[in-house]
What does this fold into?
Amino acid sequence: MDKVYSPRAVEEKWQKAWMTEEFYQAYKFKNDGRPVFTIDTPPPFTSGELHMGHAYWNVINDTVARYKRMTGHDVILPQGWDCQGLPTELKVQYRWKISREDRDLFRRKCVEWTANMIDSMKRTMIRLGYRPDWEQFEYRTMDKSYWRAVQESLIQMHEKGLIYRKEFPVHWCSKCGTALAQAELGYIQKKGKLYHLRFSLGDRDLEVATTRPELLNACQALAVNPGDSRYSWAVGKDATVPIFGHKVKVLSDSSVDMEFGTGVVMICTYGDEQDIRWQQIHKLPVIRSVDEYGRMVNAGKYSGMKVSDAREQISKDLEAEGSLISTEEFVHNVLAHTERADCMTPIEFLTKDQWFIKSMDFKETVLREAERMGWIPEFVHGRLVDWVESIEWDWLISRQRVFGTPIPFWFCADCNYIISPRREDLPVDTSSTPPPVERCPKCGGGRIAGTTDVCDCWVDSSITPLIVTGYFKDRGLFERAYPVDLRQQGHDIVRTWMYYTILRCSVLTGTGPFKGALVNGHILGPDGTRMSKSKGNVIIPEQGINQYGSDAIRQALFSLTIGSDFPFKWEPVKYGKSFLQKLWSSARFAEGFFSGRGTKISPRAMDETDKWIISRLKEAICKSRDAMEKYQFHIAVDVLQKFYWHEFCDQYIEAVKPRLYSPRSAEDKAVAVTVLYTVIWNFIRLLAPICPHITEEIYQKLFRDEMGFVSIHASPYPKAEELPEVDGTIGEKVISMIALLRSRKVESQMALSAEVRMAVIHGNSEELNAYKENEWLIRQVLHINDLEYKIGERDAELIR
RNA sequence: GGGCCGGUCGUCUAGUUUGGCUAGGAUACCGCCCUGACACGGCGGUGGUCUCCGGUUCGAGUCCGGACCGGCCCA
It folds into this structure.
């Protein structure tokens, strides 16, 4: 073995080997009757760059899977790719200047681009030591087979009466030209103006504050709070809308905020979600004022202008007319297209035909299934509950885009009746495929239309537990593997991936998809803020893999508590690297003595320090197992590092040297070697799920011949019961006295190997007995010629 | 405005569920040591009273109440 451990060469060697048929046996899901353990792993969006956050997910999944395999499970570790979505379309549009109108060509380019992105991301995943069952469980949401599954799932939902098409005010992004789901929206702070307008009620005027005067044409009412005495006189009267001149009623509504602006609000169809509620409650007419491209319509001379220009112009005209009382600068929160896109465009409400899944009916179902799951950390459950309770509309699943799974239905243009494709025709694109019927089965009409709409990306990804358990193709497997044991994901997508998956899988199968969820935090940039390209604080794993090795990165990623965010720092990675070197050096030291070894040690032949290290090893095994079962990786890493470095290397190896270099007896040396062998053999298996490469290397070099497993990852995780019953208390006293004497030597500026004429050690009678029985060892380790004992407080002094 | 999470040596962090030995580590820093696995090492040291205030208790980082600060989610 080389003196210095070089992760790069070793890691690459094993990564390659693990992909071969021989080693695949250790990673393959065999469906051979052992208990199945299934992990629903997050399919990353195929942006092409695998950052440290992705690496974190991969490492968690990989470590859980390796641990579960070593504890006797038949593990399904899938890895998917979330391919379809706006960012890719925007890239393709920009890079190749291809119009979305040419749908086939556009789609082909998206697929081509995405395939390249996957290659590059997969390479990094493999370099992290991640080893999912690529052969059986890799999926890409853009593949025809995946489309078939998504479409099948939608047809099944339709058969349960859960899909409908309806004209509805939808959140619309005018820049991206598509409707959006609630989950794709967020609030951004925007500077704007608050315009105070004068509405005439004949003899008196009302002052109304609004941020959107350009919507005046769609103004359908004014409203005041019933408790607002300032305006009780106005309720029920007609007001004249400035510029446009139409008359609207002054309504009374308790949800009007008396504190905001003047306390009078103008209701337009539609400025915001509150307008939609008011429109429905007060049954107001609907006037459309903005089109798909963000331009004004039904607005007289303003028609055709961009919204922002119209706002400018109308405010000038209001001023000229004398209806503008004042304007004030104003910072407000604007609903915008914030998720999964850099778009940030404020959204408008448009009335359009859209496809929906009836999700409002299943709030109770989702809450019930979420209740039955185990959540790590607990509080994430509460976050899902809050989200479910706050949902107000059904799930809008259609997108007016190209790179997505086609909505697999036709509809009757006369009565909106929905027509499903034949199963054997899946996947279908109803915009180019003729319908299976000529006339509407409901109204008999002959106008059957397909759609160019595609599915929201969450429609794709919300069936991953069904995909990986074979719901669509292998019912036998499905019965055994569903619900999946563990869903691992980030806390930012609880309201999307988690919610939609529980909803869809529960409705389709009648049972919630997860036994447990492990919800992790974010890996932040070193500055503690979210990684983003524009801030230049993105950390990619490749930066450190060559220098420190992925085993070091893996240790560092596990130093955080699951669920909390974590600014990425290189220091813990460096520490991880040092630990690898320590492990390497100790194995190299031990290797020299490993001839004619045996694995069975008898407690009777053991030295007291042997018993001590074996008892410490047993405790490390118990703690590590316990931590791994609870997914407390940071505890497992901590326990293992401390045991190996500070107990085994610092104490035991130092104390065992005389027994190896100048043994009292051949038998005692053999026992010492066996203990070294046992500790290292057990320890590398404890560490294997976390640091798969170095442990494999040491296994293959030192243990493979005797143990016979093809890989350390095919060996069983250690059990404390397999080691002899020992009492380490005397050994602990001896070890701690040796440590004390060593520090006394350092204090007197003596080299550890320097000869000491005499040492006097103090202790109670029990301690002194322990020291006396092990006098040979103490003297040899510290090169002390003579030892004297004194009753007293535990202490030691050197006499030169 | 509502909800959640958190605030422990310069920095990161364990301990808080089930109050109790001198608050444990790591890193950085300083000093000594190249000792026959390892200088990517060994030994030792400086450094915190646990955000603040009040309460319960023989005893609180740990429980209760309040305030302040930070982060996230939602409106």
Chain A is about 40% helix and 20% strand. Residues 761 and 796 of chain A are 4 Å apart (CA to CA).
